[in-house]
């Protein structure tokens, strides 16, 4: 058993079955044994993200953030908060590009890399020391209570927030909790643990099909509501994979969307090696829009990563793709990496980009 497995098993033996959301949260974020609490020891160990494909992803995001600064009438300080910053790879791409290509914006920029894991914060501090020394970067464990003007953004964060597992049986919505039988974790079907789950589905007008499994992302709803409260004027940008509710809970998703990732292998063995594998569920963008409105966030756009990146890159024919001094072979390689990011069969249509805004009056862009 992994150390976390022993801790969870003891908790269940002592207090009874727990909601899957509690199990998932511990697996990913336990301060000592959680999957995301450990230092990043090997890049691409279990999966890779858009950030890992090519710096163009961060460079185009930097251009978008510069546009946001302009829309906010160039405030003296633009607070750019990346939630789930990890070891600072994306932050480095954004800040390096801003310093080189968007100098006016760079000097207004206050980048806050928010990361729960102490070990990953240390790795980020080492990677980004040059920008911290210049006063452009701060690394933090929590999001600031108030963001006067700026943007809060995340890349593949919401899919890793804890979810409740649900199933419809004989017309009754029930919850799949985690029990322990002979030292093994097992599904235990029980009554719904909180009325917030019923509200989650009712608010979106969703009724599951008989026998359908699904996830209720209450933590994502709480997250976006709180983010909306903290930002006074600016934007929330979310890049992740998922769908609006009507598609997420349709007949094509009868088994739900929860998956486990380890060493680039995908499985539905959610209970294997707690703390040693990633657990993710598709993002419900309808929920982010709905709960975001409760704290003043207005949806500007929801589009594919393909459309989002093309709109940013086509203005200068993706000149940001190339580094100075690259030979023809290196440029060809860079173009192939770009295709991975924007091609419909790659990451382009799998990932969606939700842009929400607050306090901009009638200027919806």
Task: Report on the architecture of this protein.
- This protein is an alpha/beta fold and 365 residues long.
- It folds into 2 domains: 3-33 and 162-216, no CATH class; 37-161 and 218-260 and 278-358, Rossmann fold.
- It is built from 14 helices and 16 strands.
- The protein has helices at residues 3-15, 20-29, 50-53, 56-71, 89-101, 103-108, 118-127, 129-133, 195-203, 218-230, 245-248, 285-293, 305-313, 328-342, and strands at 18-19, 78-83, 109-114, 137-140, 150-155, 164-169, 172-181, 184-190, 213-216, 234-243, 259-262, 265-267, 278-280, 283-284, 298-304, 351-358.
- Strands 2, 3, 4, 5, 10, 14, 15 and 16 form an 8-stranded mixed beta sheet that branches.
- α4 packs across α5 and α10 crosses α12.
- It starts with a helix and ends in a 7-residue tail after the last strand.
Low-pLDDT ranges: none
Secondary-structure element order, N to C: HEHHHEHHEHHEEEEEHEHEHEEEEHEHHE
What's the total number of strands?
Answer: 16
Q: What share of residues is helical?
A: 25-40%
- Provide the number of structural domains: 2
CATH class of the largest domain: Alpha Beta
- In DSSP terms (H or I, runs of 4 or more residues), the helix count works out at 14
Class per helix and strand makeup: alpha/beta
Do you know the CATH architecture of the largest domain? 3-Layer(aba) Sandwich
